Amino acid sequence: MKVYKFPTRNKKLREWVIKMARLCSPDDIVWIDGTEEQKKILQQEAFETGELTLLNQEKLPGCVLHRTAVNDVARTEHLTFICTREKHDAGPTNNWMSPQAAYKKAKAVFKGSMKGRTMFVIPFSMGPVGSPFSKIGVELTDSRYVVLNMLIMTRVGEAVLRQLEQEDNFTKCLHSKAELDINKRMILHFPEDNTIWSVNSGYGGNVLLGKKCLSLRIASFLARREHWFAEHMLIMGIEEPNGHIEYIAAAFPSACGKTNLAMLVPPKGLAKKGYRIWTVGDDIAWMRVDSDGKLWAINPETGFFGVAPKTNMQTNPNMMATIKKDTIFTNVLLKPDYTVWWEGADGEVPPSGIDWQGRPWKPGMVDSEGKPVNGAHPNSRFTTPITNCPSASFRLDQPHGVPISAIIFGGRRQHLAPLVYESFNWQHGVFLGATMASELTAAQVGQVGKVRRDPMAMIPFCGYNMAYYFKHWLEMGKRMSKAPRVFCANWFRTDEKGNFLWPGFGENLRVLEWILDRCNNKVGANKTDIGYIPYPTDIDMTGLELSENSLGKLLYIDKKAWLEELKGVKAFFKQFKKDLPQELWQECEELEKRLKKG
Ligand code: GTP
Ligand code: SPV
Ligand code: MN
């Protein structure tokens, strides 16, 4: 093999890169330095290989389009594994393989997988370099699309290499698109080795290894050991006219509204109140207890990998402004003028275009079963820098992050879950998080619409036994003298006809207002079996007309349905056997008692 000049003296890093290159046999090794010049070269090469299409540079400067393989459009949870020495440490909710078996199986697939290609080495930091929160990773990949996405989503460049001169601790991330063969696709996590191996995919969450793989699965494992949180949460600030900003974090499962909430625009009816929203993050929160006894949070990422369908000037004007430039669009419709479109975009439906699969498309087309053919894939996405966002927080690079006043757990539930309610205390709050459930979306391969239990929106992302994770949550409560208050929200409750009862999006600020009022002890609440529910008059409905008794329906608690729900909760808890913290069984019993009494 060629002898390479490496821009690092870190011996562990040099040796690892060489070892992986020996396994994958690339023709060449290129180190990514985070410069604009190198990015331009990579883009140019990607246009030539067909990985990327240059979009209309007058209308969408710096924007490009990528299409994935047809069977590679969402995270593949069934091909995602936690590889701990003991199966028990991965727990009953994760797929497990022994590290030995996993390395062996994957090595056979990685062997020679980069022949004829370049191996790119991306040193990156999750979180501001030098912050007490931050973690360094190095991703090796044969995909220019991955490199260009990582340049938006993570911090890449000189400062990271300098940090690597001082520390040996980095997450070793290996990715090869190989043949994009779904039958040989594997997303493997080795938390005990601080290592991630991903092969035969080219889709976002499977291959941008800094995101779900490092910042949630590996990080959650480290967070337990080091007493912090790595969570699937947005972070946002709500500024009052007097300049005071309160920050909240919210965990909703994939494609359940984090991005939209994180950058909401206050609704007209509340405009007079003069709120201003600051977006800190839309997907991942790392949180630690600071010396003031409060929970402080950073967003380890620097970009959004957001859902395209339904993004428009009504639902998310801030995102529409963000994606006007420097954006990578994935699996959207290409219009004849080389701009892009997706279902639920602004304006007219284009009369023609090239669909996400690269085929000619016209509105109204149906497939062989008579189903409408989408122009954009339901999980089509854009990758865009957070600094483009008009509501981007001015504290993004603040090494200590922002203080969190409230944590919100939410799901997509047509029935049962009320618009909002508050836990009685931290332990009850952990119970509410642990008993979350949500309807599946297009963000993961599976049956869309099916309700599954998704504690803290982390079921696909917890890098260890979830019973220990619950215990960690309970223990963290004891480490804080001023713990955030814990709430549940559901924007997706429907009426008898299946229409959403709550308008959502910007109007969600009305609910956040109540949450902050509760945090600041400004309003009372109705104590119910499941938690504190707002008195309807405490939600400011100025300028919002809902059909009759919608608010009543949104806040209604159906005891019978909750007792039914509890059966599912118990069945879910049971699989953890003796590991499930006793406190959660206790909460279960108390809830059951309350529900049966009334
Ligand atoms: P991931 O990036 O997969 O983690 O998703 P996310 O949680 O950031 O979800 P996102 O904000 O992208 O929303 C996903 C889908 O939910 C989009 O189709 C949105 O239009 C829809 N959505 C978001 N917020 C609301 C809301 O308040 N009400 C309703 N009805 N739909 C919403
Ligand atoms: C999610 O599915 O929760 C996402 C998109 O945020 S992905 O990066 O694919 O995981
Ligand atoms: Mn997500």
Shape: globular
What's the CATH class label of the largest domain? Answer: Alpha Beta
Q: What small molecules are bound in this structure?
A: guanosine-5'-triphosphate, sulfopyruvate, manganese (II) ion
Number of domains: 3
Helix-strand category: alpha/beta
Uncertain parts:
none
Radius of gyration of CA atoms, rounded to a whole number:
24 Å
Looking at the structure, the CATH topology of the largest domain is Phosphoenolpyruvate Carboxykinase, domain 3
Total DSSP helices: 16
Question: Overall pLDDT, averaged?
Answer: 97
Question: What portion of residues belong to β-strands?
Answer: 15-25%
Q: Tell me the distance between the termini.
A: 75 Å
Walk me through the structure.
- The protein is α/β, with parallel strands linked by helices and 598 residues long.
- Strands 1, 4, 5, 6, 7, 8, 9, 10 and 11 form a nine-stranded mixed beta sheet that branches. Strands 12, 13, 14, 15, 16, 17, 25, 26 and 29 form a nine-stranded mixed beta sheet that branches.
- It is globular.
- The termini are far apart.
- The model has no long low-confidence stretch (mean pLDDT 97).
- It binds guanosine-5'-triphosphate, sulfopyruvate and manganese (II) ion.
- Manganese (II) ion (MN) is lined by residues 232, 254, 283.
